[in-house]
Design brief:
2 domains, 85 residues
């Protein structure tokens, strides 16, 4: 079993108290990411399940063709018909 991280593991990152709390006690079930910029941090919900069948397109190739047809890459609005189904 991997030991749990602690505050010292993130000392060099200069996280705010809230950011550090998120990193150390984040919910492993939710798909959240911390996006940091010089102006501050933002939590992003990166759960892709709401994409449903459209998630197949991210992999492209044979899976995308099988799900949406050989010409889906040439049809910029292909996803609209997929969502309506």
């Amino acid at each position: 079993m991997t030991p749990a991280a602690d505050e010292a593991d993130y000392a060099e990152m200069a996280l705010t108290e809230n950011e550090l709390d998120f990193v150390l006690s984040g919910d492993p079930v939710r798909r959240l990411a911390l996006w940091r910029t010089p102006r501050g941090g933002t939590l992003l919900d990166v759960d892709l399940k709401p994409l449903g069948s459209l998630l197949t397109v991210l992999g492209g190739g044979k899976a995308g063709v099988a799900a949406f047809g050989a010409d889906y890459e040439e049809r910029p609005q292909f996803w609209k018909t997929a969502v309506q189904e």
